[in-house]
Fold this sequence. Notes:
Elements: E1 6-9, H1 13-24, E2 29-33, H2 37-46, H3 55-61, E3 64-67, H4 74-78, E4 88-91, E5 107-112, E6 129-133, H5 139-148, E7 152-155, H6 161-188, H7 194-212, H8 220-223, H9 226-234, H10 238-257, H11 263-275
Parallel strand pairs: 1-2, 1-3, 3-4, 4-5, 6-7
Antiparallel strand pairs: 5-6
Helix pairs in contact: 1-2, 9-11, 10-11
Amino acid sequence: MSMERIGLIGAGRAGTALGAALAAAGYPLVAVSARSSASRDRAARLLPHVPVLTPDEVTRRADVVLVAVPDDAIAAVAHELPLTSGQYVVHLSGAHGLGPLQGLPATPVALHPPMTFTGADAVELWDVVFTATAPSAAKAVVERLVQTLGAQVQWVAEEERARYHAGLVHAANHLTTLLTQAFAVLREAGVADPSATLRPLLTATLDNTLRSGHHALTGPIARGDVDTVAAHLAGLHGRTASTYTELARATVDLAVADGRLDAGTAARFGEVLERYRTGEAPR
Length: 283
């Protein structure tokens, strides 16, 4: 079976990485469009043998048109392309389903690789689980494309795309926020290199949690150590205090559901956390 010709609209980090991976896997990458000088440089570096053409020319040469532009531009860019009913039009946004591609003659596909692309060099996609939303007519093409990359694909319903993306953002982006807060607390405590201090603990925790979920929970709440949490809150302030309090509440809920905390200890935690709920000093 001959492989679909791939056309790439936009040479951003994700699109270029995916285009290069598809080309390396044997798909014919027929052309790329690149507007900014950064995009042209990236295309020259990662897609050296691929002609840089206008979006219209890229579209006319391709069976699968990857619209790899910023989320807010997907609809406008896609609706200007000379697409036909024999083509597939694909965007790479996690936040959007098929909405931005509505009303186009081509078969629409939302195909999200949940990972961060640096744009520096070629990427390994073999451990990525792509998330796809598409009509059934596109399923075979999408599954073959992803499997050729050595990756996996899972399907999420159109109406669940926002919830799917919320889960990713809550895990990945909020982890950065959480660690940034923790770095600041450690620096205040006189720790010169918070990152080096936390690395072994975080690496083990992340690994354990990815493997066994909530069973990886350790620390004062899992042990029922109410006084320790009260002492923590006395030393925190501002947004960090309120974030700590809210996450501590969620952690108490987890430990109760797990059977690790009895109702009495949970209630004592509740009282301490309520007292500090707004980051106020102890009364």
